[in-house]
User: What shape does this take?
Amino acid sequence: MHYDIDGSDGRKVLCIGDLHISDVFTGKHKDYLSNCFTVLGQITKKVESERPACIVLLGDIVGWSETNIRSREVLTMFIRVLMRWNSVCPIFAVRGNHDIKGYPDFNMLCTIDLIKDAVATDGYFSYSANGVEQCRFHLVDYGKEAEPLELSSVGSDIVLGHNNYVVQGLTNWYQAKGGIELGQLKEFNGVEMIISGHIHRPSPQLLSTTMPDGNVCQLLYAGCPTRPIAEESNYNTCWYTEFGYDSQTNQTQFYLEPMDLKPYEELFVDNGVVLSEDNEDENAEKMRKEALTDTLKAIMDYQIVTGDYEKQIDDIPNATTKAKEIAKEYIRKAMAS
Assistant: This one.
């Protein structure tokens, strides 16, 4: 089904880059899991203070080498964060390259209606004001860039994607293999802007290129606020990207707001020790025990988990009764394990 998000009161569409929530990955992090919940806490404060019209997660929501959160405690806490956001507004999500492997937690989060993907929305949702479609936001999953878009007849078209979109001479601040030359992507003719995940290092500014139809399309990478890889992560700010209706101009405006992150030096060790995927099993339990205490502290600091979680599920305004029952049963099992 198509979703129509009402922005008549100025409430915005809030887009957030790759989260990569993981309870086993460390890399060169001192405590990656704790950092994940610190970032979630920052986002929660923004969501509850600004109360956006909806949230969009730009892919790679769970995991690094893995696609499922192993600890049932951590999974439960992450679910409750999403429940808390859902109590403010619906959450849409693009499926990233990490979200398409095996049967990831991404699928479970869709099943219990905590996030809505391209399948659930038939490919897009509308942002309207006073009954008129202002923008159509297309959820383009990783690997689906060649599929046709159902463009708006009255408003702007924005792609929310997850891939390495290349603009020759401009996308030169990061290194990534392959990529899609944006100016040759005829399926995106008519699209005015692309906000993408996948490239962790945020764009220094909006980039522009000419599309095959001669129109100009802008590109921005929101960046990865959890910064998994030290070699790619010597930045202390990434982007909140927002779209909001302005009643004075009768137009939807684009906003960029810096998301300040913990200083690089506080998060990473520099002794050259890197935990690889090969030895993650032997380290997983030790990491879980060490990280859980700090994670719980981060949760308390940001007051992420509060109240009666079943009541919070019942209060989610955009979920069906069936989805709420599935969610409550799943959480009961997770809490009991």
